[in-house]
C-alpha cells in the first residue's frame, strides 16, 4: 500500500526545487520532509532523488511523480462530483514554450480557466524540452514540437507557428546595405525615415556566409535551435555570434534596438512588420514549427475538457500543420 504522505513529500521537493521550499509548501520542517524521503527510499530499497550535481528524480522517482500527478487530477474530478468531500483548489501544471505563452495561449485558455476557477502553473520550456517535463512526471500536459507521446500519454496536433528572421532597419543598414546607400538613406529626417524604412531599403537577394559570420543573432536559449535551422537552410553550418535572451518580450525588444536579428513568430511581429519597425532579412527562409498538445491518458475530466477546448479553438489562431513530416526530437 502506498503512503501518500511520503509521495507528497517527494512531489513537493521536486515541485519547489529544494527541501527547504518543499517543506515550507507542506507546512513541515525541512527535517520532517527529509525523514519522509529517507523512509520512502528505505521502503523501496533504492533512491528516489539524485541530490548532486542538481536535485532531481531518479527513474523510479519519475514513475512515482507520474503517479502522484495523475492521482491529484483524479482527486479533483472526484471532489467536483462529490462536493461534500471538501473544497479543493483546481490546479494544472503545464509546460509551454515562451512564444506560445506570448501569443495564442492566453487567448485560448483565459475564458476556460475563468469559467472553471482553474489555476495553471506554467513552466516555460523550449518546444523540444517540454516533453522531458512530462517524462519526468512534473507536468500534466505540455506544448511540444514532436508528435510522439511518452508512455501513458496522448498527443494532438494543434497547428503551427511561422517564424521569420527579423531585424531593425538600423541593423539592416549596418550589416546588409552597401555603405554609400546607407549614408544616403541617413540624410532623410528621422520622422520621414521611420515611415519609409521598410520600403526604402533594398535587401540583398542572398545573405553571404561572410555576413552571417559577423552579423550577431539573438537566440532564446541553449536549447533553441531555430537559428541553426535557419542558417542550415542557407548552407551555413559554422559558429556565429549571438546574444542569449530567455524572454519572449525581451527578444523582440533586442531586435527593435538593433542588437541583432532573430527568429520571431509572425503573429507576434505582424504589426511591427507593417509599421516598418522590423524587416524580414530572409523572406525565402521562413520556418514553420508544428505544435502538439501532450497530456496524460488518465488525467481526469478537467484535463480532457482542456484538451477539447484547445482542439476547438487553436485552429483559428494557428496556421495549418506543415505538409512535410514533423521534425524529429532534437532537430529544432
Automatic annotation (TrEMBL):
Q: What is the lineage of its organism?
A: Bacteria, Pseudomonadati, Pseudomonadota, Gammaproteobacteria, Oceanospirillales
Residue spans with biased composition (Basic and acidic residues)? Answer: 183-192
The Swiss-Prot or TrEMBL record describes its family as follows: Belongs to the LysR transcriptional regulatory family.
Q: Which residues form the HTH lysR-type domain?
A: 2-58
Q: Which GO terms describe its molecular function?
A: DNA binding; DNA-binding transcription factor activity
In Swiss-Prot or TrEMBL terms, this protein is called LysR family transcriptional regulator ArgP
Q: Which UniProt keywords apply?
A: DNA-binding, Transcription, Transcription regulation
- In residue numbers, the region (Disordered) covers 182-202
SUPFAM superfamilies given in the database record: Periplasmic binding protein-like II, Winged helix' DNA-binding domain
Q: Known InterPro entries for this protein?
A: LTTR, LysR_HTH_N, LysR_subst-bd, WH-like_DNA-bd_sf, WH_DNA-bd_sf
Amino acid at each position: 500500500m502506498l503512503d501518500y504522505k511520503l509521495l507528497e513529500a517527494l512531489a513537493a521537493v521536486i515541485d519547489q526545487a529544494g527541501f527547504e521550499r518543499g517543506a515550507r509548501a507542506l507546512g513541515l520542517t525541512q527535517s520532517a520532509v527529509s525523514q519522509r524521503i529517507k523512509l520512502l527510499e528505505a521502503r523501496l530499497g533504492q533512491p528516489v532523488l539524485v541530490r548532486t550535481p542538481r536535485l532531481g528524480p531518479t527513474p523510479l522517482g519519475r514513475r512515482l511523480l507520474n503517479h502522484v500527478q495523475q492521482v491529484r487530477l483524479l482527486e479533483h474530478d472526484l471532489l467536483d462530483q462529490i462536493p461534500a468531500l471538501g473544497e479543493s483548489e483546481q490546479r494544472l501544471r503545464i509546460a509551454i514554450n515562451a512564444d506560445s505563452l506570448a501569443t495564442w495561449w492566453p487567448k485560448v485558455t483565459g475564458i476556460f480557466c475563468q469559467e472553471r476557477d482553474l489555476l495553471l502553473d506554467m513552466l516555460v520550456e523550449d518546444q523540444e524540452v517540454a516533453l522531458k517535463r512530462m517524462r519526468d512526471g512534473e507536468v500534466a500536459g505540455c506544448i511540444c514540437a514532436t508528435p510522439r507521446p511518452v508512455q501513458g500519454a496522448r498527443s494532438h496536433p494543434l497547428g503551427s507557428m511561422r517564424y521569420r528572421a527579423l531585424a531593425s532597419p538600423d541593423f539592416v543598414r549596418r550589416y546588409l546595405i552597401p555603405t554609400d546607400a546607407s549614408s544616403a538613406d541617413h540624410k532623410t529626417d528621422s520622422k520621414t525615415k521611420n515611415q519609409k524604412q521598410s520600403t526604402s531599403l533594398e535587401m540583398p537577394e542572398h545573405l553571404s556566409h561572410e555576413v552571417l559570420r559577423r552579423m550577431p543573432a539573438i537566440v532564446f536559449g541553449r536549447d533553441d535551435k531555430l537559428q541553426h535551422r535557419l542558417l542550415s537552410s542557407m548552407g551555413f553550418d559554422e559558429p556565429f555570434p549571438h546574444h542569449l535572451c530567455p524572454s519572449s518580450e525581451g527578444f523582440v525588444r533586442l531586435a527593435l534596438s538593433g542588437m541583432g536579428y532573430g527568429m520571431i513568430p509572425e503573429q507576434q511581429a505582424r504589426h511591427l512588420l507593417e509599421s516598418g519597425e522590423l524587416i524580414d532579412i530572409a523572406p525565402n527562409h521562413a520556418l514553420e514549427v508544428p505544435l502538439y498538445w501532450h497530456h496524460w491518458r488518465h488525467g481526469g475530466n478537467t484535463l480532457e475538457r482542456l484538451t477539447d477546448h484547445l482542439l476547438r479553438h487553436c485552429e483559428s489562431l494557428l496556421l495549418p500543420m506543415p505538409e512535410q513530416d514533423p521534425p524529429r526530437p532534437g532537430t529544432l
